[in-house]
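hey so u asked for the seq, here:
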Amino acid sequence: MTVSRRDALAYLAGAAALSACGTRKNIRVGSKNFTESFVIAEIYAQALERSGLPVDRRFNLGSTQIALAAMRRGDIDLYPEYTGTAAIDVLHLPPMHDPVQLYRTVAREFAERYDLFWLTPSPMNDSQGLAVTSDFAKRERIETLSQLAPVASRFRLATIQEFVVRPDGIPGLQKLYGGFVFREVRTYDIALKYRALLEGKADVASAFTTDGAIAVDRLTVLRDDRKLWPPYNVAPVVRKQTLQTQPHVARVLDRVSPAITDTVARQMNAAVESGQDPSDVAAAFLKGVST
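ran it, structure tokens below
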């Protein structure tokens, strides 16, 4: 149990009387604007509904900064967030590669700075990466980021806008590895960058390591041999006031998170990207989870 978790439980105990006499309101579950965030937010929403809590879905909010701003304004009560993203993109902390230390640090900082609490994280680690086709990897004999860095000027990159400017995107690659000045950088929606790669419009694509396309299209993720990227374990981030008035939220979501693994995430992401509805995918996942 982590520092933030203990803090959260203390709030739950102290708020029991308030919850008992308070009015139960809908829990507003948010998500960012990509497949995995939709699916995990839908899992959280359905798990809460199964426990008897009414839910409003406020998905597709946008980037990390937009989702966080919605939490701080009180527009949503919770959303799925990643430890590495919180450390780098929100808190601007130095690199940490131990997942437990990273989780405890971001949980403590979010509680102190924003009154937001991190519940139990999932084992799933949706790290970042650069993906290429298996033919490209064999032809160019490139397996690691160190091998790609000095020759990147020969190749075209398909990516998302955030990867161009985030400290753990191209700026981070250039700072740690040197090089990484691509011949061309084009930005796409998340799913479309893989299509650009497979259609020969790009040679390299930025990736999230639990993306369904990596398994479905048998892409090769280049090894981060100098360890730029920290762990990106996902967890529900919840407003303090929500935990005080609806302590059942923590108990329900803490039973769900341990079942979300890398393999499960890739399967769910691939299912949605092949056309299945996120709500159906989430429902199928929850059939095997006790809430």
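DSSP finds 16 helices and ten strands in the chain. The radius of gyration is 20 Å.
lmk if thats what u needed
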